[in-house]
Amino acid sequence: MKKDFLSIADLDRDDIPDLLHLTAKVKKHKSRYASALKGVSIGLIFQKPSNRTRVSFEIGMNQLGGHAIYLGPSELGMGGRESVKDVACVLSRYLEALVARTYKHEDVKELAKYAEVPVINGLSDHAHPCQALSDIFTIKEKFGQFKGVTLAYVGDGNNVLNSLMIASARVGLDMKIATPRGYEPAKDVAAAAKAFSRKSGSLLEFTNDPKKAAKGADVIYTDVWVSMGKEKETRKREKVFKNFQINDKLLKFASRGCYVMHCLPAHRGHEITDSVIDSRNSIVYDQAENRLHAEKAILLRLLK
Question: Counting C-beta atoms within 10 Å of the first and last residue's C-beta, which end of the chain has fewer, N or C?
């Protein structure tokens, strides 16, 4: 029976630690997996532009001995020129897996419903599970554990936060989240994260005060204020989020040597300053690199 990777919440109990362990092995022993997926081809169905997701999956498949083909909006027009169902059914006859980067999470779910091959959520308006997996891997890489580590997220209650707080809650990573009023994460996702945190014994706090979230944090994470598809809200959001910038002043509330994370692309001077993202405490490029290793682990788990 085929298995998809649409959301961190959908993973079984042992899946996350197993994937983190495999990610570490793939990163350390690159040559060992050079022909692991020899002869395997996957399709990258992208409705949105991409840097890290496209490159990491293409290079990842190449390093595993397989092949990836990019299918952008001009090639497919999925949901418009051609229905999601037809795309899923046809590409299942050609390829061994599909990676979808879509505007609507419903498109990813529908793709998985009709595809006969595994579907990986490369990003949707609801979730970004590949990013979250690489993020918590990066944190474990720095601290060696999750227990006793506090992650603060300051910014928009978006798809990245949805996946990050579920992942943190499941592995026992304490998390404090600060968003402006009216921009909190989806209530159903927050409720699910709370349920997971109770099981793992981790702390999960929500606030509208960035300073409160940053206080004593070991890691501070942020993302853009205006996600793709919300460009019409740019001016409004810049006003609402102006006090939610990750800058030197806010970092003074965090623990000494606090790491800084950003999933990129970053709008420097908006959600984060140059002095912070370019500081020695910034690990944004480490987490970007780890997208490659985490996605290779996902591909191996689903296809080998």
Answer: N
223 is catalytic: yes
From 54, 105, 126, 128, the catalytic residue:
128
235: annotated active-site residue? no
Burial class (CB in 10 A: 0-12, 13-18, 19+), 239: exposed
Domain ranges in the chain? 8-128+291-303, 131-287
> Residue 66 class from Cβ within 10 Å (0-12 exposed, 13-18 middle, 19+ buried)?
buried
Query: The domain 8-128+291-303 is classified under which CATH number: 3.40.50.2300, 3.40.50.1370, 2.40.50.140, 3.40.250.10?
Result: 3.40.50.1370
Classify domain 131-287 at the CATH class level. alpha beta
Active-site residue, 89 included: no
Catalytic residue among 54, 105, 270, 291: 291
In tens digits, the chain (304 residues) has pLDDT values of 899 999 999 898 899 999 999 999 999 999 999 999 999 999 999 988 899 999 999 999 999 999 999 998 878 777 677 899 999 999 999 999 999 999 999 999 999 999 999 999 999 999 999 999 999 999 999 999 999 999 999 999 999 999 999 999 999 999 999 999 999 999 999 999 999 999 999 999 999 999 999 999 999 999 999 987 788 999 999 999 999 999 999 999 999 999 999 999 999 999 999 999 999 999 999 999 999 999 999 999 999 8
263 is catalytic: yes
